[in-house]
Backbone:
């Protein structure tokens, strides 16, 4: 990604507000938020536009002069003159209609400290993350918080239009053998956040045995939260070549159609789950009841006699993102089981439970600990013997259920 993340000066400002012990600090804090408006919104949602934050400004406090000679060239290089009594400067990128200093902005830079230089220059790429588009760019000068004699300046403005290439799509997918569905995901959706989101990404499944047999799965309405599509049009037993292409009607991209990307060749959709690196299960699916854990999906090589790693999972719950590695240890056989194990998955909680493999090639994993928010929850699945004597464990994400307790 060509831009580094900016993180604003607001945490410093907030800490000074909370620690302030003089009336001049409080007064100027009010001036600050009255002038800056939506800084807090950008801090909380760095990739989106924000709403204005109301405040009060004493009309009697004179404003700093606006930075002079503000320019932004086609390459994003900016420069502006220093302002007397300024402590730092902020650059904002706004919609072209946001001509008032009270209007919302879309992106903001880190604070640019006044070092005593006569002018300041740099490149917007180095101080702000922003998408392709057309912007009204503003720079404002700010006094220090203990300066009771000055308020922040009016904005100096410049126009800036940024265009560029749309990245090729990267696709991850999950074949769910239990439901005969494939879920395709735009694995690099984050890269489009600072370009443009495609109008659609078409993932094409071409039957290797019959090139006229084509299934197109379209991902549309793409955002950072919506970037996948499920289809039942592909057929069990077929082998497919998979490709993808992105399309955009944005006037700010230099390629309205991406390159056609070869995702994978010779993918047989059969009786075992297929989980590609980069695929992320939707939040809440495959998860324990009211917990921060998730069940595994597949383990392709598991030693049934000695146990070992029996799956991995990623969960988003209590404590944030949790990466879980499940380990199985053989124990005395449960009734009707061919193999029995205790299972453990250290994470935010230390999840423990049992797993049984049965002679009909079914399996059941039960997580019964710890107590608290995690209710006893189980997942079912199937297992297959591999040629080398190991087994493949396939878990059914649609089978997760809470187990009733006495």
Residues:
């Amino acid at each position: 990604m060509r831009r580094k993340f900016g993180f604003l000066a607001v945490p410093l400002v907030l800490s000074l507000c909370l620690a302030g012990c003089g009336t001049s600090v409080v007064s100027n804090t009010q001036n600050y938020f009255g002038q800056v408006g939506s800084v807090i919104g950008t801090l909380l949602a760095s990739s989106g536009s924000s709403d204005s934050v109301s405040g009060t400004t004493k009309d009697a406090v004179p404003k700093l002069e606006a930075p002079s000679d503000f320019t932004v060239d086609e390459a994003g290089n900016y420069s502006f003159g220093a302002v007397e009594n300024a402590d730092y400067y902020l650059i904002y990128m706004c919609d072209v209609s946001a001509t008032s200093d009270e209007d919302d902005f879309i992106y903001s830079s880190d604070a640019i400290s006044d070092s005593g230089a006569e002018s300041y220059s740099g490149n917007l790429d180095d101080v702000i993350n922003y998408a392709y588009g057309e912007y009204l760019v503003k720079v404002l000068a700010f006094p220090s918080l203990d300066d009771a004699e000055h308020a922040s300046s009016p904005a100096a403005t410049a126009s800036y239009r940024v265009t560029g290439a749309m990245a090729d799509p990267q696709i991850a997918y999950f074949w769910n053998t239990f439901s005969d569905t494939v879920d395709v995901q735009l694995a690099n959706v984050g890269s489009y956040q600072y370009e443009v989101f495609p109008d659609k990404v078409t993932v094409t499944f071409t039957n290797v045995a019959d090139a006229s047999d084509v299934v197109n799965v379209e991902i549309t309405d793409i955002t950072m939260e919506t970037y996948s599509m499920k289809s039942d049009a592909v057929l069990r037993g077929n082998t497919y070549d998979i490709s993808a292409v992105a399309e955009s009607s944005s006037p700010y991209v230099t390629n309205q159609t991406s390159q056609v990307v070869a995702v994978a060749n010779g993918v047989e959709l059969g009786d075992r789950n297929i989980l590609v690196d980069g695929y992320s299960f939707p939040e809440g699916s495959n998860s324990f009841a009211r917990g921060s854990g998730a069940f595994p999906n597949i383990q392709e090589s598991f030693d049934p006699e000695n146990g070992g790693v029996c799956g991995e999972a990623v969960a988003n719950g209590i404590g944030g993102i949790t990466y879980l590695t499940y380990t199985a240890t053989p124990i005395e056989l449960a009734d009707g089981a061919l193999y029995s194990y205790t299972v453990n998955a250290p994470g935010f909680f230390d999840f423990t439970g049992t797993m049984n493999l049965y002679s009909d090639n079914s399996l059941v994993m039960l997580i019964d600990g710890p107590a608290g928010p995690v209710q006893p929850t189980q997942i079912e699945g199937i297992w297959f013997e591999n040629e080398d004597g190991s087994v493949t464990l396939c878990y059914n994400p649609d089978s997760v259920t809470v187990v009733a307790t006495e």
User: Anything to note?
Assistant: The helical segments are 10-19, 23-36, 39-44, 189-192.
